Amino acid sequence: MLRDRVKEYLLKQIQRNNLQVGKTINLAALARQTQISVTPIREALSQLEESQLIKSVPNRGFIVPELTMSEAKNLYETVSQLEILALESAAIDERLVGKLKKQQLLLQQAHSPLTRLNERFKFHDLLVENCQNTVLMRILDTLKSRIRFYEQLLVKDASFYENSDNQNEGIIRAIEEQNIPTAALILKMNWMLVSDYVVAQLQKK
Amino acid sequence: MLRDRVKEYLLKQIQRNNLQVGKTINLAALARQTQISVTPIREALSQLEESQLIKSVPNRGFIVPELTMSEAKNLYETVSQLEILALESAAIDERLVGKLKKQQLLLQQAHSPLTRLNERFKFHDLLVENCQNTVLMRILDTLKSRIRFYEQLLVKDASFYENSDNQNEGIIRAIEEQNIPTAALILKMNWMLVSDYVVAQLQKK
DNA sequence: TAAGTTTAAATCGTATACGATTTAATTCGA
DNA sequence: TCGAATTAAATCGTATACGATTTAAACTTA
Description:
Two copies of one chain form a homodimer.
Chain A: H1 2-15, E1 24-25, H2 27-34, H3 38-50, E2 55-57, E3 61-63, H4 69-89, H5 95-109, H6 113-127, H7 134-154, H8 158-176, H9 180-203
Antiparallel strand pairs in A: 1-3, 2-3
The first copy, chain A, binds a DNA duplex (30 and 30 nucleotides) through helix 3.
């Protein structure tokens, strides 16, 4: 269905940092870009509205929502808890540690802020890769898409990643030792680190 | 916007148990019922699809998803955790205990399974009434809408409510004593009670 | 020159048209 | 009579039309 294709397209645009906060999505332009007429485009955008990735303003159209401190706090609080739940309910697979280490290397070798951010999200996705709760995973995916807007705009500082990298290594070590409560605790601290950083950056604006 | 009105209408229909599991939503009929043309109806249904309350099947339309054991388990696991998070982060207001007691009375006086179910959901909504995390509350609302399908169809037995009522009273008592960890624990047990009951009923089918 | 007003163009949200697909009803053959 | 084939009707998903609203451009006035 065309609606699904448009939604996929827009989610990819989000990952590539091609949807700017505050920007109105021009339906005619998007129809030309995708060669799909506006009806399924509107349906897809309505879905993204439901996910809070897009908001609609009557007679003005679909707009990428501005960033707010309260939303940031709420998002990070919720994601943190849900990701811990997913980690705790996932089957730990012995190849996971290898994958995490490899991913952490990729993260550290990333050259641009956007690549680094994407690798960081992949690291988190790996942590919960084996979680079988599809309801939970779907919610997490959606929330993380919204979080991308915050981090794409606000997390550029390489020094931030040093602290985060240390925590990621701590998480890997804990998982290697099958010590899930410690992994969960460090994971929570990691999300708090990002949350505090994002909130501080928002306060400067 | 008409899309929002259709969505509200359909969410109300869900609460009233007027959307049957497995039923295909007839767009022309809904357009006649609501006096709204199919374009905003499809947009609203696309949104409900995004929430997993409705699924779309190509060339057949929008259908209320069947109930499954795995979805039930996943839903209850996730709702339980999120509601506990919301309870723990809510400001406890001294009028809350009074409201909960009153609501519990309404629950116990309800004459029909559907009324009783709706009162039970209101009880749960009251528990988290003061939670300021709008991201979390929105997710909870959506998940609970989906859970209604399970409970409308499967939870009819009055004896189930006796156990649930006892737990509700335990939760009220714990909150009255400002003992949130205990309230959270009983709340978790309450969701497990429902989950186990629903899963058992599904197993009979 | 800046602010206000008017006009023109662009865009939005909804209704409607229409080809494709599914469902229902009817017919045919064993 | 039952199952398969054919026909008809209903419905779906998408494209397009169009009135309403917003935005942009042009004009006027102080």
